[in-house]
Structure formats: structure tokens, C-alpha cells
Write a structure and sequence with these properties.
A hairpin with a 2-residue loop joins β1 and β2. The chain has two domains: 81 residues, Jelly Rolls, CATH 2.60.120; 103 residues, Jelly Rolls (Sandwich), CATH 2.60.120. The protein is mostly beta strands.
Length: 208
């Protein structure tokens, strides 16, 4: 009799980008290991749930939640989950953009006409757009699919076609419940994506 193939439980990660800080929330099953990438600056991880072992250059340390974990610059570390764990990684990244941390299943196209900027996003099922907020009120159009939108901790589901108003300064995130096409519509005199996003997204460049 053949043994049944075994599969590992998936690691669930959500990215949040707001006010120049990039935080990723990861729910990691017991028995899994993750390797942190080398960075030129020290970083902080917060263990909110569970127990882990940190292997840092051959030195192993156990942490039990709640715990603060400092990852030193220019070092690659291995974290082993002794139990199911929830980790928050926090990086100060003032130059990082939403597009740089967005899930690979999102395809973005930009359109400009008559003082209007439309960002088209094709979002794969189960993908989340990182939390962010805008300098001005704006409209979003759900052209295809179904999404769960959380605005300032209030969550609603929408099915296409739908138009949603997002008020200024309200943190929001979008989760695709199926393959989705989503448009963010902004008024701006800018005519290239980088300049436009620097103007409309809180935390981009000089916009605070």
C-alpha cells in the first residue's frame, strides 16, 4: 500500500503599508521554518502568539508570546515554529511603495486623461492589497469579481459592478474573493504613475 503524499499547511501573510512603515502579519503553522533575509538595518519582529526558536549565527534562543525579537543588520536568521505562531515583522521603509510589496498576483496598469488618473488592478483570488490611505476622497470601481473591503475596521463585501467611495485619511485594504478587476480613480494634474502616487498616497515621499 502506497503512503499518501503529505502537504504542509500554508503560511498566511498580509502586508500593511502606511505612513512609511511596512508591516507584515504572518500566521505560521507549527513545524514550519522561515528564513529572514539580510537587511542593511536592524529590524523588529513581534511574536503575538505561539512559541518559536530563533537561530542567529548558530546561537539558538527560544521566544514565547508575547515577545519582542530583534533581528540584527546584515544577518540571515532561521525561525522555527514550535507551535502555531503569529509574527509581525516591522520595517521603516519610507521609500517603499504599495506596488513594491503587493502580491505577485496583481497586475497594474495606469491611465491618465483630462486631470483624471485611473489605476487598474487585476487582483488574483485570495490576494490582498496592502493597507494604505489617501490624501483626498476618491472613487473605486469594481468592474469584475467580488471583494471584501475593510475601511477603518468596518468590512463590507461587494460584487461587480459596484462603485465605492473611499474618504480621505481612512486606512483601507481590499481582499479579492475571486479574480477581480478594480479601478482607483483620482483627480490629479500629474501624468506619470510615480508622481501621481506621491501626491495621493499618505506616506509617499513628502506627503505626510
Amino acid at each position: 500500500m502506497l503512503n499518501q503524499p503529505t502537504t504542509q499547511s500554508a503560511i498566511q501573510t498580509q502586508h500593511i503599508l502606511v505612513d512609511g512603515v511596512h508591516m507584515h502579519e504572518s500566521h505560521i503553522p507549527a513545524g514550519r521554518k522561515i528564513t529572514t533575509k539580510q537587511r542593511p538595518v536592524d529590524r523588529v519582529h513581534v511574536l503575538a502568539q505561539g512559541s518559536v526558536l530563533l537561530n542567529n549565527s548558530g546561537v539558538t534562543t527560544r521566544y514565547d508570546a508575547p515577545a519582542y525579537i530583534l533581528l540584527e543588520a546584515d544577518r540571515e536568521c532561521e525561525i522555527s515554529m514550535l507551535t502555531n505562531a503569529t509574527l509581525y515583522g516591522i520595517d521603516p521603509t519610507p521609500a517603499e511603495t504599495i506596488e513594491q510589496v503587493i502580491n505577485k498576483d496583481v497586475e497594474i496598469e495606469h491611465y491618465f486623461a483630462g486631470g483624471v488618473y485611473a489605476k487598474q488592478m487585476r487582483i488574483g483570488k485570495n490576494c490582498k492589497i496592502p493597507t494604505h490611505r489617501h490624501v483626498y476622497d476618491h472613487l473605486s470601481v469594481l468592474a469584475q469579481g467580488r471583494v471584501r473591503v475593510t475601511v477603518s475596521k468596518i468590512t463590507q463585501e461587494y460584487t461587480a459592478p459596484a462603485a465605492i467611495e473611499i474618504k480621505r485619511d481612512l486606512v483601507h485594504t481590499i481582499e479579492a474573493l475571486e479574480d477581480t478587476v478594480w479601478y482607483c480613480i483620482h483627480a490629479t494634474e500629474e501624468t506619470d504613475p510615480e508622481s501621481a502616487n506621491n501626491t495621493i498616497i499618505v506616506g509617499r515621499n513628502n506627503v505626510i
